[in-house]
């Protein structure tokens, strides 16, 4: 339960949600038209492909699912504990994510199917990296849980049980950031094509640098 929301938590969550919305929008508009920031729809497509015997679609969608899991595994190895706190190796995880996105950019430009694998792995890494803070679940690559939490918070408020303002602020910020990121991804793809993915890689690299700065300042105080 969030009583006080540190600026670095809010800023980091917003920046990562922007990134996820952006890359997911580009991936959906790409040659393969698959989501990469979440796996629910992809799993449904894979199940349909399995039943209908479309082996090529099944292979590709299952590969996207596996890539997301691999990204999450990498996050688990690097970051470890799910509780969000300063001092964990988020900088290293973000650097790896940035490289995955740079490789995805190259693969997108060559219309290679590995583009969505790399982008999905980057999202899986990011989603697993940020898990819980002060008892609240924080996810930055999809909105299902966030929207459910917003609805639950408002339901409790309407029932007269009070409103956890800081928690709702974080959830609404992530929701809006993802939507804005998706809109920016569409505009970026329209103007730059697959070169828009470079923006993702640079953006995540900047988030990594920002985290390093926060750590440095924290160590000095």
3D architecture notes:
The structure is a single chain. With 221 residues, the chain is mainly α. It has a single domain (7-216), classed as Up-down Bundle (Growth Hormone, Chain: A), CATH 1.20.1250. 75% of the residues lie in helices and 2% in strands. The protein contains eight helices and two strands; from the N terminus they run H-H-H-H-H-E-E-H-H-H. It has helices at residues 7-29, 40-52, 55-79, 90-109, 114-129, 144-158, 165-192, 196-220; strands spanning 132-133, 136-137. A two-stranded antiparallel sheet has the order 1-2. Helix 1 runs parallel beside helix 7 (165-192), helix 2 packs antiparallel against helix 3 and helix 3 runs parallel beside helix 5. The longest helix has 28 residues, at 165-192. It is globular and about 50 Å long. The two termini are 26 Å apart. 39% of the residues are buried.
Gist of the model:
The protein is an all-alpha fold. 75% of the residues lie in helices and 2% in strands.
Number of helices: 8
Largest sheet: 2 strands, antiparallel
What is the count of distinct domains? 1
Under CATH, the topology can be stated as Growth Hormone, Chain: A
Q: β content, as a range?
A: under 5%
- Mean pLDDT equals 90
Helix content: over 70%
Backbone shape: globular
Low-confidence stretches: none
Major sheet strand order = 1-2
Descriptive tags:
mainly alpha; 2% strand; Growth Hormone, Chain: A; 2 strands; 8 helices; globular
Blueprint of the fold:
Elements: H1 7-29, H2 40-52, H3 55-79, H4 90-109, H5 114-129, E1 132-133, E2 136-137, H6 144-158, H7 165-192, H8 196-220
Antiparallel strand pairs: 1-2
Transmembrane segments: 7-29, 58-78, 90-108, 168-190, 196-216
Keywords: Membrane, Transmembrane, Transmembrane helix
Pfam family, one: DUF1275
């Amino acid at each position: 339960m969030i009583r006080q929301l540190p600026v670095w938590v809010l800023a980091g969550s917003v920046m990562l949600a922007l990134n996820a919305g952006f890359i997911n929008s580009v991936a959906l508009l790409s040659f393969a038209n698959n989501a990469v920031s979440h796996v629910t729809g992809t799993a449904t497509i894979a199940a349909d492909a399995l039943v209908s015997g479309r082996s090529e679609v099944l292979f590709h969608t299952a590969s996207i699912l596996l890539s997301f899991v691999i990204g999450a595994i990498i996050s688990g190895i690097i970051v470890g504990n799910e509780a969000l706190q300063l001092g964990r190796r988020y900088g290293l995880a973000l650097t790896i994510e940035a490289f995955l996105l740079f490789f995805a950019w190259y693969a997108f430009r060559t219309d290679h199917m590995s583009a969505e694998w790399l982008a999905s792995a980057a999202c899986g890494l990011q989603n697993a990296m940020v898990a819980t803070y002060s008892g609240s679940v924080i996810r930055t690559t999809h909105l299902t849980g966030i929207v459910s939490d917003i609805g639950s918070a408002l339901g409790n408020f309407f029932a007269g049980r009070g409103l956890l303002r800081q928690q709702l602020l974080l959830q609404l910020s992530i929701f809006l950031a993802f939507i804005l990121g998706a809109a920016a991804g569409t505009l970026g793809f329209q103007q730059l094509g697959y070169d828009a993915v470079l923006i993702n890689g640079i953006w995540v690299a900047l988030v990594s640098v920002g985290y390093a700065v926060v750590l440095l300042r924290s160590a000095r105080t």
